[in-house]
UniProtKB/TrEMBL annotation:
Keywords: Membrane, Transmembrane, Transmembrane helix. The keyword Transmembrane helix applies. This is Beta-propeller domain-containing protein, methanol dehydrogenase. The keyword Membrane applies. InterPro entries: TPM_dom. Residues 55-180 form the TPM domain.
Length: 241
């Protein structure tokens, strides 16, 4: 028996479809507004001596072109000198982790023995706080002092970050300095800097994340209130009609 759809049933179906679409939309926005997942040591690729991977950018802040430049320069350094440098960029650390503890764990995980660590250098950056750490093996220390290594992390990398989150510039300049020193050339030193304000005028990554989350929450509240009301009045009709 053929069943005809009444206007009432038609409106019900449209209403259900609208609510289903609204729920799907809110869910997708919620995913977008969710804070970035923290990165642990075992979330990264398992690398070791001789690996062909030189840059691990899980924060996705380095352009493909610059990642290619970094990889090419570090590969050539390894082929000419045997000294390997790897750079790791993550978006955020676990709440109980510091950049130093993370760098220690990652260095030990990738290079478990003193022999494996000997000619290795590891530079790690966290983009949420813009903190940086560097670790070197014993053979590297004979070429590059701990003072120079610390300067690479605290000046060569940190200065471009303080001047406006210039991640690409920071790693390219760090690569240039590390390649020079580990190739036996004179240390070019950190980049020159203008007068640096202790209080940065740029919003931190954490502040930016908080603001973005607040905007999405407001959008969700407006949608959750306005769309059902508009749908209700469309369904039942405006008062007085």
């Amino acid at each position: 028996m053929e069943q005809n759809l009444t206007p009432h049933n038609s409106k019900q179906r449209v209403l259900v479809g609208l609510f289903a679409g609204l729920l799907s939309f809110i869910f997708s926005l919620g995913l977008m507004a969710a804070p970035a997942k923290a990165t642990g040591v075992y979330d990264l690729p398992s690398l070791g001596v001789g690996s062909s991977t030189w840059v691990v950018d899980s924060a996705e802040v380095i352009s493909l072109a610059n990642e290619g430049k970094l990889s090419s320069a570090l590969k050539q350094l390894a082929q000419k000198t045997g000294n390997e440098v790897r750079m790791v960029v993550i978006r955020r650390l676990d709440f109980d982790e510091t950049i130093d503890s993370f760098a220690d764990k990652l260095f030990a995980n990738w290079y478990p023995t003193p022999e494996e660590r000997a000619n290795e250098t590891l530079l790690v950056m966290d983009t949420l706080t813009n903190s940086t750490a560097i670790r070197t093996g014993e053979a590297v220390k004979a070429i590059m002092s701990d003072e120079i290594a610390k300067s690479v992390a605290s000046e060569t990398v940190a200065i471009p970050l303080r001047e406006g989150n210039k991640y690409n510039q920071a790693l390219l300049e760090a690569s240039d300095r590390l390649v020079a020193v580990l190739s036996g050339q004179p240390d070019p030193g950190p980049p020159s800097q203008q007068e640096l304000n202790i209080e940065s005028t740029f919003a931190s990554a954490e502040e930016t994340d908080d603001r973005s989350a607040t905007v999405w929450v407001v959008v969700l509240l407006v949608l959750a209130t306005a769309i059902p009301m508009a749908t209700y009045f469309w369904y039942v009709g405006l008062p007085g009609r």
